[in-house]
Design brief:
This protein has 250 residues and is mostly beta strands. It has no helices and 20 strands. The C terminus is likely disordered.
């Protein structure tokens, strides 16, 4: 009498978990056979590969450790790829979005406004407060009163993380100036305050607005990245002009 031997094989089910207290990601696999090869971990934002993590290894699990202090640059999907020889590598992932103060888009637009016009200045940024709302304050130098502005969700904000340009969900704050006069010329600042783990963190940018007879838009390159854990600032100046304003190339 002969019997039939069934050989069961399954590609691995891959699970990625995250321990926020130790900032560790653990990738585990379950399949038949249970001899697994873990490829290099990947940090991705959307379709962009930001960096590779760890080393290729064998076993039943692998752990990736993130920096002790997380910033906006650590936001994204952490992807683990595992194979046991059945089918191609199977993937698991976990999305990490640490609380972060405002980070301004690395290319801003400064309006050169025309006399008698209605002009809107827009400042996009990325922020993820741990609790409460984002507070924004616009000010004009040498004026004590805050200016009335608007805040709304925007499209993707382009930022540079670990040397790669990526898109993160953005917020935009706008200031509208109506019936523009020479008194609107001057230095303006935008301060964004976020509650990060119970601590108010501020980010600030400032720029100069020039009033002319003909308006246009400057596109100015800049590098608005955190210079410290608590505060960062950068100043842009569009000098007064008397002729048509041509865009400045990035």
């Amino acid at each position: 009498m002969t019997g039939t031997v069934f050989i069961i094989s399954d590609p691995p089910d891959v699970t990625v978990t995250y321990d926020s207290s130790s900032h560790t990601l653990t990738c585990t696999a379950e399949g038949i056979p249970n001899a697994y090869t873990f490829s290099l971990g990947e940090h991705r934002v959307g379709e962009t590969l930001v960096r590779k993590l760890g080393t290729q290894t064998r076993g039943t699990s692998v752990t990736y450790t993130l920096p002790d202090t997380l910033t906006y640059a650590d936001t994204g999907d952490y992807v683990c790829t595992v194979t046991n020889g059945i089918k191609s590598g199977q993937k698991g992932q976990f999305y990490v979005a640490p609380p972060t103060p405002a980070v301004f888009q690395n290319h801003s637009q400064t309006l050169v406004i025309g006399l008698g016009k209605t002009e809107t200045i827009s400042v996009p940024f990325y922020a993820r407060p741990s609790s409460g709302s984002v507070q924004v304050k616009w000010e004009k130098t040498e004026e004590s009163d805050a200016l009335e502005s608007h805040l709304e969700e925007a499209g993707p904000v382009r930022l540079v993380v670990y040397g790669q340009e990526v898109s993160l969900p953005g917020i935009v704050t706008t200031l509208t100036l109506t019936n523009v006069s020479p008194t609107n010329e001057g230095e303006y600042s935008v301060t964004v305050t976020c509650n990060i783990n119970g601590v108010a963190k501020t980010s600030k940018t400032s720029f100069y607005v020039s009033v002319t007879e003909i308006s246009g838009i400057y596109t100015l390159p800049n590098n608005w990245y955190p210079l410290s854990k608590n505060y960062h600032t950068l100043t842009h100046r569009a000098h007064p002009i008397t002729h048509w304003v041509h865009p400045i190339a990035h």
